Amino acid sequence: MIIPIVLAFLILLICITALGTISFNSRINREISGLLSEASPGQRVVVTGEMIRNLPPPVQRYMTYSGVLGKTIPHTVRLKQVGRIRQDEKSAWMKLEAAEFYSTSLPGFVWKAFMPKRRFPIALGRDAYADGRGSMLIKMLSLIPMANAVGSEIDQGSMMRYLNEMTWFPAAFLGENVSWKAIDDGSAEVTLSDRGKSVLAIMYFDPEGKPLNFVAKRYRMVGKRYDLETWSTPFTGYGEFEGLRLPVRGQGVWNLKEGDLVYVELETTELEYK
Questions:
Q1: Domain enclosing residue 105, as ranges
Q2: What pTM did the predictor assign?
Q3: How many domains is the chain built from?
Q4: Chain center to CA of 196
Q5: DSSP assignment letter at 73
Q6: How far apart are CA 254 and CA 180, in angstroms?
């Protein structure tokens, strides 16, 4: 009698998990559809030399290196990633496969991550920024919440993440909601404004204009509190998508007083502009 009961329980658990995955995934897909449908089609803006003429010299080199001159600023962006993630230095790394969708006219994104793989994930996560607000939701077996975060600190962190990930569609750095301030010949301060709020970071470039790092203050979730820490995303590999030279590999690092914590490593495998 025990074996049939155990088998029945396992079958029931598999069915519940499958239904949970379908339901959570469908919810995320609706958010993605909403983000993309609200993206303003607007007029196609072609990047010209005049648009970069007054930028700090390292940013001018960055735009030239990337190859955005003569290209249009995309309205939406879609990409796929592979990588690994962990909570802290004591946690084991978990592989992930992810897809991310962006709106550029109205800043926003939805990131959907399957851990460790898209097929039969142990955990499914969603990170988002829309209408000036951020949110994060991760569920084990798509049923048990592991993280469910909203609030002003998440708003700031998600907006900062969007600013950072504009390196995958650098023409958007020329939008009216972005401003640059010179620091020296190898770095510049960049500010993104959206719905009355703003975040700023420092970007570093090599003499050719290749982006090297992005450093900012960002809120880090530690238990039930948030600490404002230094956050950086060194770029570790480069490639070509949509005719542009872009970072394709990088890390997320918390630069803590006790030492650097590398908590995520990602590689972009596909990218599409519309």
A1: 2-273
A2: 0.92
A3: 1
A4: 21
A5: P
A6: 24
